[in-house]
Design brief:
12 helices, single chain, alpha+beta, about 425 residues, 3-stranded antiparallel beta sheet
């Protein structure tokens, strides 16, 4: 949520900043609703003050006297007027808040201008695609793929995009999750096991609502949403809380299954593990002091890059341009791994700084001694999403005999050197 004082005093500056993003919002309409809201609240407060003053005057009159009875009649009229004006103020506030929530976060000044993903900037690379296996094929074309990642039975049980991971492949997925969690612990993140459903307040706080309703699964009866990422429940852990400034930055890590409808995405890079409705992901979340948040974003990105380097996966880092950056984001980096079989890059992590946008919605504040509470800055990053990391491992490390070499960093949880079956004549 944009700072309301900034919104009122810097509307033209805000208009220029938000014009860089792809989201439509009517700032003039929001400003007019804010004026109506403030006027309605002022009218209600004045009426309430008059009611209180009249009530005090009536309390000094002898009960049953003509003056007292006259005042009783006046008080009834005043009470009805207060009730009417308070209802109008409440409605005006609700109308303004509904529109105000459609205003996206401002992009940071370091975010490059651009209209879409083609204008994202590659700022660094690690490794070389040329060093990938010469035997690489798309992971979904490996002969044993369907035996170890069973999509047809997933379709039977749930629908498209819900595969079963079988035997050693299931163990390899678990090894990746354990590896991601342990590395995060080494880097100072406290592990947390969160709910995988959230209410509308939580989804609104992190910016999924009102921006991404069509991408989330919702239980209409309970008003609960299956989480699209652990960012949502974990960020809301501190909703309506005040944390001491000396505890910042607070860093937590969570593994959860994630659920996304991916509405409108089918037909685009969807084969195999590239795009699923349910997938496993480990998420890093930070609450930081405002002065430190962009430095903490760089550290967060390095935490995610560390995993890819230990896995031996070639990757590149993209600085996301203003036309492709998300609704609540101020600055965003994406990490993409090279998939040698498909000969394309796959996004496996998005590391983002939301500044105080989420914390204002969630009312998460920090307090320095002797000062009023102020909004923290929130950050998060995938470290990492399992399916595309797994796809890159299967493709980049495919051997001549048809098996896949497993990265050494996973041996603690997956002791075998290979996964899959030898090719048959």
């Amino acid at each position: 949520m944009i700072d309301l004082t900034y919104f009122r005093n810097n509307l033209d500056e805000l208009r220029i900043s938000l014009a860089r993003k792809k989201f439509d919002c009517d700032l003039d309409y929001a400003a007019s609703l804010d004026e109506e809201r403030r006027s309605a609240i002022s009218n209600a407060e004045q009426a309430r003050a008059l009611q209180n003053s009249s009530n005090f005057e009536m309390s000094k009159l002898p009960k049953g006297s003509p003056e007292f009875l006259k005042k009783v009649g006046e008080m009834k009229i005043l009470a009805e007027n207060v009730k009417k004006l308070e209802t109008l103020a409440k409605d005006a506030d609700a109308k303004f808040q509904e529109v105000f929530l459609t205003i996206p976060n401002m992009p940071h000044e370091s975010v490059p201008d651009g209209k879409g993903e083609d204008e994202n900037q590659v700022i660094s690379t690690w490794g070389s695609p040329k060093d990938s296996s010469p035997h690489a094929v798309p992971h979904y074309e490996i002969p044993w793929f369907d035996e170890m990642i069973d999509f047809p039975r997933g379709v039977k049980v749930a629908g498209a995009g819900y595969p079963f991971y079988m035997g050693d492949m299931s163990k390899l997925v678990r090894a990746l999750i354990n590896f991601f969690l342990e590395e995060a612990s080494f880097r100072g993140y406290e592990e947390i096991h969160s709910p995988i459903v959230v209410n509308a307040l939580s989804a609104t706080a992190t910016g999924q609502l009102p921006d991404k309703e069509g991408q989330m699964y919702c239980d209409q009866n309970e008003g609960l949403y299956l989480i699209p990422t652990a960012e949502v429940p974990v960020t809301n852990f501190f909703r309506n809380d005040i944390v001491p400034s000396e505890k910042l930055p607070i860093k937590k890590v969570a593994y959860t299954p994630c659920f996304r409808r991916e509405a409108g995405s089918w037909g685009k890079d969807v084969r195999g593990l590239n795009r699923l409705h349910q997938f496993d992901k480990v998420e890093l979340v930070k609450w930081t002091h405002p002065e430190d948040s962009h430095e903490e974003l760089e550290l967060l990105r390095k935490d995610a890059e560390n995993l890819l380097q230990k896995l031996g996966l070639h990757y590149r880092v993209l600085l996301i341009c203003s036309g492709d950056i998300g609704f609540p984001h101020s600055k965003q980096f994406d990490l993409e791994v090279w998939a040698a079989g498909q000969k394309r890059w796959l996004e496996v992590s998005s590391c983002s700084n939301f500044t105080d946008f989420q914390s204002r919605r969630a009312n998460i504040r920090y307090r320095e001694e002797g000062e009023k509470p102020k909004p923290v800055h929130t950050l998060n990053g995938s470290a990492l999403a399992i399916p595309r990391v797994l796809a890159a491992i299967l493709e980049n490390f495919l051997q001549a005999d048809g098996k896949v070499k497993v990265p050494d960093c996973l041996k603690k949880w997956y002791p075998n050197d290979y996964v899959g079956f030898p090719a048959t004549e």
